[in-house]
Specification:
Helix content is 35%, strand content 32%. It is of the alpha+beta class and 94 residues long. The longest helix is centred in the N-terminal third of the chain and has 27 residues.
Length: 94
C-alpha cells in the first residue's frame, strides 16, 4: 500500500507542477486586444488552419505571415443573445 500511495503522491505533485507551469505561461502573455481578424487579413496574414471548439460555440483560426516568426490564433465565438453577436479574441503565439 505504501508504494501505491507514494506513486499517487508523485503523480499529484507532477499534476500540480504542470498546472502551475501552464497557468504561468498563459498569464505571462499579455492580451492582444487590438488584433482583429479583419486587420490581420488585410495586412497580408494567411489562414494556416482552423477548427471548431468542443462547445460548438467558437471557432479557432490559426494565421501565419510569411515575414513573421510567430503565429496568431483567433477564437471567434457567436452568441445570438449578446450584442455584438460575434466576439473575436486574437493573440500571438510565440
Amino acid at each position: 500500500m505504501l508504494k501505491s500511495s507514494g506513486w499517487a503522491a508523485r503523480v499529484l505533485k507532477f499534476a500540480c507542477l504542470a498546472t502551475l507551469v501552464t497557468t504561468q505561461a498563459v498569464w505571462a502573455q499579455p492580451a492582444d486586444e487590438t488584433i482583429t481578424i479583419e486587420g490581420l487579413l488585410s495586412a497580408g496574414w494567411q489562414i494556416a488552419g482552423f477548427t471548431g471548439a468542443v462547445d460548438n460555440w467558437a471557432t479557432f483560426t490559426l494565421l501565419r505571415h510569411p515575414n513573421e516568426n510567430y503565429l496568431v490564433q483567433c477564437r471567434a465565438g457567436y452568441d445570438a443573445t449578446r450584442e455584438p453577436h460575434v466576439k473575436p479574441h486574437c493573440y500571438k503565439l510565440r
